[in-house]
Amino acid sequence: MRLLLPVIKVLLCQKSLLRCKTLLLFLSLVICSGTTCYAESISVMTSEEKLIKYSNEGYDKAKLLLGLKYIYGMSVKIDYDKGISLLSKIEDDSDAPLAIGYAYEMKKEYDSARKYYEKAISMGNKKANLNLGILYKEGYGVKKDYTKALSLLDRAKDSDPQALLLIGELYENGNGVEKDTNKALKYYNDAAEKKVALSYFKLDGLNKKVARISNIKSLLNSALNKMKQELLWIVSTIMAYIFYIKTKRTKKLNYNFKNISIFNVENKIIEGLSISFKTMSIDRISLLNIVLWNSGNAAIDSTDSVNLEPLQIKLSNGQILGYKIKHMSNISNNFRLDQINDQQIGINFDYIDGKDAVVVQILHDCKSDSDVKIDGRFKEFGTPVRRQLPTNNGLNKATNIFKIIMSLVVILAFPVYSYVAYGELLQFINILTSIGATVFIITAVIALTYTMPKGVNIDYDSFE
Fold first, then answer.
1. For residue 255, what is the enclosing H or E element?
2. At what angle do helices 181-193 and 162-173 cross, to 10 degrees?
3. Which residues pair with 144 in a beta bridge?
4. CA of 410: how far to CAs of 60, 212, 417, 421, in Å?
5. What is the Cα–Cα distance from 424 to 254, expressed in whole angstroms?
6. How many Å is the Cα radius of gyration of the chain?
């Protein structure tokens, strides 16, 4: 400008209008060229350099933009510490604490991240609700709290559609809320409408799951309906059979016995010990316990016995040393023992009602069980039949069957759980439990139709 002063003075001395116009034109050219040169010098600077320059000059907006670039890696290398340093100087923009919280979260300093998210929320930043909600949903730096996470995500759903996706996950898995597939689908659909990419995969997966559950429920209901029909048929058949057995009038005389060796000369411990009976020396003594019972439901009368073949206890290869009636379940049966000879005892009675029984004990010197025989014939059912004593273990068998069914329920519960929703699984278990209980009751009823003769308590190992 100093160089231009002499020229201006010379031109001012001339009062020519033409020269004044020339002066103005010259000044405009100089000013324009200077401005162009300054603009060109500024344009050479990068956007980052410009932000740094304006940031250093104290512009908060420049500090904010530069800090965000460092934290989110926008056209620069991510540098969380630089970003935090720049944004910490900004006090009136809620995006600053939000970005700082994100930086601390990426650094896995979750406690600091939580504090800055809470600060951003207090400044009115709705997007910070999403970030803080994720911390509580995943348990980053805080105790998992699905209820609080849901509350925060609900506040963020209008400002960030990502929140819709996360709320859908909570409803799908039943975290903090009651499991609700329909609500989960609604939130996934809302997220998909707002172009949240992951929501499409969530929708596809959940729809397939719903279809699979629906198909399994349909198959399960069909199977259960069929099972109910078959169970009803089985129950009806069994109950009809039980009623038939109960109402059918039958007479069946059964017996069983056990022989216990008391003394045997071959196994004697004391030398010189001998036993005699009626001046006769005997080599062995055994105790025979015999139980007879009516396993039918109609009374056996004394007149049912065939006179030529009366009811007798017969021994061979030995003799009867003593005998007695140990027990009668019904004293009115009036059982009586009459010794016919050394090897035969007659059994007389007035009647034997259903389940009535008698226990007879006999001392003898027979060698083996094959020497014992129960003989006799009756008009309606023929000869007495040896059979195993019925016991009350039918109830134990019913209990075992029930346990097996319940074990199957538990085993089936695990694979079914992955396909069937929780509520349907409970329904499935309840139905199988009902079936198990029904089978238990039926088995118990059958067991009770065939029990130990009433009042009989046999002690084979003692003799009074």
1. strand 253-264
2. 160
3. none
4. 66, 22, 11, 16
5. 52
6. 52
Task: Find the angle CA(286)-CA(289)-CA(292) to the nearest 5 degrees.
Answer: 150
Distance of CA 110 to the CA centre of its chain: 36
Say what the pTM is. 0.43
Of the chain, the end-to-end C-alpha distance in Å amounts to 147
The angle subtended at Cα 42 by Cα 36 and Cα 44, nearest 5°, is 105
Burial class from Cβ neighbours inside 10 Å (0-12, 13-18, 19+) for residue 419 reads: middle
Q: How many residues does the chain have?
A: 464
Q: Give residue-wise pLDDT tens across range 5-39.
A: 444 444 444 444 444 443 344 444 334 444 343 33
Plot region of 382 (φ>0 → left; ψ -120 to 50 → alpha; else → beta): left
Q: Judge: domain 47-208, CATH 1.25.40.10.
A: yes
Token digits of residue 38 = 């300054």
By C-alpha distance, which of 170, 174, 139 is closest to 153?
A: 170
CB 343 within 8 A of CB 319: yes
The fold adopted by the segment(s) 253-386 is: Immunoglobulin-like (2.60.40)
Mean pLDDT of 407-434: 56
| DSSP state, residue 272 | T
Per-residue pLDDT tens for 166-198? 998 898 888 888 888 888 888 888 888 888 878
CA dihedral 174, 179, 180, 185 (to 10 degrees): 30
Given phi > 0 = left and psi -120 to 50 = alpha, else beta, which region is 407?
A: alpha
- Rounded CA-CA distance 313/363 in Å is 12
Q: With left for phi above 0 and alpha for psi between -120 and 50, is residue 179 left, alpha or beta?
A: beta
With contact defined as beta carbons under 8 Å apart, do 236 and 262 qualify? no
Q: Where are the domains positioned within the chain?
A: 47-208, 253-386, 394-448
Helix (H, G, I), strand (E, B) or coil at 102: helix
The token pair at 310 is: 């009366």
Cα–Cα distance between 74 and 70 in angstroms, integer? 7
- State the greatest distance between any 2 C-alpha atoms of the chain, in Å, as a whole number: 185
What 3-state class would DSSP assign to 131? helix
Question: Which structure tokens are listed for 143?
Answer: 């105790």
The neighbouring-strand residues paired with 294 are: 253
Rounded mean pLDDT, 118-133: 90
3-state secondary structure of 194: coil
